[in-house]
Design goal:
- By secondary structure, the protein is of the alpha+beta class.
- The protein has eight helices and 18 strands.
- Strands 2-3-7-8-11-14-15-16-18 form a nine-stranded mixed sheet, with helices on one face.
- Helix 3 (95-110) packs parallel to helix 7.
């Protein structure tokens, strides 16, 4: 569900093949101790790079972890933990699933319900889950909103590792799973002694340390429309950079465009004055939730939320008038060829 974020480096010729997958990852340093892998999981293209003596073992372990989490959380796999829970409405789940639910509950409460993992019935109704797109009848939307949605329909009993869904609610971790996964891979890299690396999971980037020359990783934020060549670049070190936008998954019907970021309050594509939200944070899981939640909230409420939580994350916002806003915490590491406004705390 997240927009690809491009790595802006010069890499050897074979890596140019990655451009066909809408992302490149590169570095100007020596490649003698560098390894990389590519794979498709969680409905997105992924690319990982690692440096150091145990880099290959770390990448193998990371690939195994990605596949394990994908098997656990994919709503497209009938035997996944989430699919079984959605079908049975109750079941014993893993620690990781409980952690994702608790994060979703926290962000939902703090943003007034702008983030809601019980969105799945609506995603399915609009066809974003199956790619059989349609504009639903208002009565069908309202039936789901009134009877099947709401974080209050998700109950966690940590003592028994049991999750209960009520009233036919169904959950989907599409807005948080990749953030958790990138954070999990960062921990694997740490365990294997990998101090330099980069993780690209679709629109989720996790920087591991710095580049081997000691400089920060340069992450290019792709333009949300034709107005920009690129919004700008952010220099990252040991943090997640996660972007959501209304322009990656959408369909057109009757001359109108319908995007995939649904507002849990209306049950329809969020009518936000933002077209792109990038979150920079040390907590990839929360950053993933926030990129969606702040998009739904819109510019003014998103900025107000940040001012209350400015020690937890920073942002890069692009509004529908193509104005760029950044939080003051990243002004020394953000560059753009366009004018932008720095938002103060």
């Amino acid at each position: 569900m997240k927009r690809k974020i491009y790595m802006v480096f010069v890499f050897f010729a074979v890596m140019l093949l990655l451009a066909a997958c809408s992302g490149t990852i590169s570095d100007s340093a020596s490649y003698q101790e560098e390894s990389s892998i590519e794979l498709n999981a969680m409905d997105t293209y992924m690319a990982l790079r690692a440096y150091g003596e145990n880099r290959n073992e770390a990448l193998d372990a990371a690939k195994t972890e990605i596949e394990r989490l994908d098997d656990m959380w994919s709503v497209g796999k009938e035997d996944s933990e989430v699919s079984i829970l959605n079908e049975n409405q109750e079941g014993e789940v893993s620690d990781e699933t409980i952690e994702l639910i608790e994060c979703a509950q926290k962000i939902s409460e703090e943003t007034g319900g702008a983030f809601d993992i019980t969105i799945y019935p609506l995603m399915d109704l609009w066809g974003f889950a199956t790619k059989e797109y349609q504009v639903p009848e208002e009565s069908s939307i309202q039936e789901i909103l009134m009877n099947k949605m709401g974080m209050d329909k998700v109950t966690v009993d940590k003592s028994t590792h049991t999750v209960t869904l009520s009233d036919g609610a169904q959950i989907d971790f599409g807005g948080v799973a990749k953030g958790y996964t990138s954070q999990s891979i960062a921990k694997i890299f740490e365990d294997y002694g990998v101090e330099h690396g980069i993780i690209s999971l679709g629109g989720n980037i996790q920087a591991i340390g710095t580049r081997i020359d000691g400089s920060r990783w340069r992450v290019g934020i792709e333009a949300p429309n034709d107005h920009f060549d690129m919004v700008g670049t952010y220099e990252a070190e040991d943090e997640a950079i996660i972007t959501s936008g209304a322009y990656e998954r959408y369909f057109e019907e009757g001359g109108k465009t319908y995007h995939h970021i649904l507002d849990p309050e209306t049950g329809k594509p969020a009518e936000s004055d933002l077209i792109s939200v990038t979150i920079v944070s040390n907590n990839g899981t929360e950053a993933d939730c926030l990129s969606t939640a702040l998009f739904v909230l819109g510019k003014e409420k998103a900025i107000a939320y940040w001012k209350e939580h400015s020690t937890e994350f920073d942002f890069i916002l692009v509004d529908e008038e193509n104005h760029i806003y950044i939080s003051e915490g990243i002004e020394n590491h953000f560059e753009s060829s366009y004018d932008y406004e720095e938002v103060k705390k």
